[in-house]
Amino acid sequence: MTTIPIKRALLSVSDKTGVVDLARALAERGVELVSTGGTAKALRDAGLTVRDVSDVTGFPEMMDGRVKTLHPMIHGGLLAVRDDAAHLAAMAEHEIGAIDLVVVNLYPFAQTVAKGAGRDEVIENIDIGGPSMVRSAAKNHAYVAIVTDPADYEIVASGETNLEERKRLAAKAFAATATYDAMIASWFGLADQGQQFPATLPFVLQHPTVLRYGENPHQQAAFYNHAGPATPGIGQARQVQGKELSYNNLNDADAALELVTEFREAGPTCVIVKHANPCGVASGASLAEAYEAAFACDTVSAFGGIIALNRTLDAATAKAITGIFTEVVVAPDADAEAIALFAAKKNLRLLLTGALPDPARGGMTAKSIAGGWLVQSRDNGVLTDEMLKVVTKRQPTPQELADCRFAWTVAKHVKSNAIVYAKDGSTAGVGAGQMNRLESARIAAWKAKDAAEKAGWAAPRTIGSAVASDAFFPFADGLLAAVEAGATAVIQPGGSIRDAEVIAAADEAGLAMIFTGMRHFRH
């Protein structure tokens, strides 16, 4: 039969949320309650009648609770096939009672790791009996319901389950134990034993949000969260308003957030992104001033773009942003007046992250390719004073040095080949994703020229600017294009076999040039 009444339920939960209400609902329907330790106490404290697991097994809990449910009287009641004569005979012979429902959530392993607990405490929070019961019940879902998530308590509170419900609960249960084991395996390999690339790399994602479509309308897509405690990010942001986020919205918003995070400790900063590339970045005395400067860098590309801010969105900035069509605005927070201004733009999505992630955080990135995955550590390289090496005769001025650092930070987030001109804390031109560095330098200069014409400036902002290249100049031609655009300072990794030729060209043009020794390819 597909619908099975629940006559006996075993409840053993680490997270007690909602378990008393569930147990009360089951008890009112005549269900016998069996429980362990803290869960049994919580149910008794609520006035419910509960039978201890030790009464069922005939053995007390032992070894500090490590052994309590690992017993044939429990697993026989979970695994018995109810319409198999041999199984029924074994149950009768050994006086094993059937268990129709198991409610389990596991020891808080991930939370224990996240709080920085010592190794012994982490090990003690590896659940053994819980996953065993979950897997036994899930395997025998034809007869047993397994609940691992308090959000599913209402499914079983009626005192009966049907087969479709039990199948869905079983699938969720196996996913829960797979996630749990993957987190443990990751901790052992990465944190405990320091294996950056262990023999098996568990990759666990959960809680999908199905999107309207993928990168293109003929593709299907979903967003998944990483397993474990949440960290600040686009996926965890609160959407205040606007229509549903698309695959491209999420991808671009993440690119914008990652870049603005680099300015977490800086003054008010605005990043405008289009197709995962920054088209304007600026810092200013206020967010509104930063937005206006970033927007002026490329007013064409900014249309329909993604904006990220490193400060609470205020009314003045919100009013400026509403001047053109914008897809998404990302900020740590927003004041009431700014939210009210955005309310008139019903399609504009506003995402509030609550905090900005740490740009120097660790972690891995992964990309699927035919036949496997490419996995690498995050590009969290930070430029320090000690890394800066002036290789030209002329030293950069303090302002040129500041502009070099600004341009370098932005170039890190531009698709390679990347060239970024910056002046006075604002991008002047961005050249992205070209097959050679010379073309990137020319495109960035052309964009700066176009911006100046649109704004009515006397000259493009590349005049007197600093220019950053994400990788070395293989020839002097890219550098000379920057000179032609008016740049007076250059920052690049160095390391080309023609470095001497490039340095000589810089000296001849009177440039100041800095080598960093660090490359920032982004593909």
Structure description:
With 523 residues, the chain is of the alpha/beta class. It has 18 helices and 23 strands. Helix 1 links the parallel strand 2 and strand 3 (32-35). The protein is elongated and about 95 Å long.
Notable characteristics:
523 residues; alpha/beta; 18 helices; 20% strand
What is the approximate shape?
elongated
Strands ordered across the widest β-sheet: 10-15-14-13-11-12
Radius of gyration: 30 Å
Distance between the termini: 55 Å
- Total number of β-strand segments? 23
Which structural class do the helices and strands define?
A: alpha/beta
Helix content: 25-40%
Largest sheet: 6 strands, mixed
Strand content: 15-25%
Determine the number of helices (DSSP H or I, runs of at least 4 residues): 18
Unreliable sequence segments: none
Average of pLDDT = 92
List the helices and strands and how they pair.
Blueprint: E1 4-5, E2 8-13, H1 19-28, E3 32-35, H2 37-45, E4 51-52, H3 53-57, H4 72-79, H5 85-93, E5 101-105, H6 109-114, H7 119-124, H8 129-139, E6 145-147, H9 153-156, E7 160-161, H10 163-192, E8 205-210, E9 222-226, E10 238-241, H11 247-261, E11 269-274, E12 277-283, H12 287-297, E13 305-309, H13 315-321, E14 326-331, H14 336-343, E15 349-352, E16 364-369, E17 372-377, E18 389-390, H15 398-411, E19 419-423, E20 426-431, H16 437-455, E21 466-469, H17 476-485, E22 489-492, H18 499-509, E23 512-515
Parallel strand pairs: 2-3, 2-5, 3-4, 5-6, 13-14, 14-15, 21-22, 22-23
Antiparallel strand pairs: 1-7, 8-9, 10-15, 11-12, 11-13, 16-17, 18-23, 19-20, 19-21
Helix pairs in contact: 4-8, 8-10, 12-13, 13-14, 16-17, 17-18
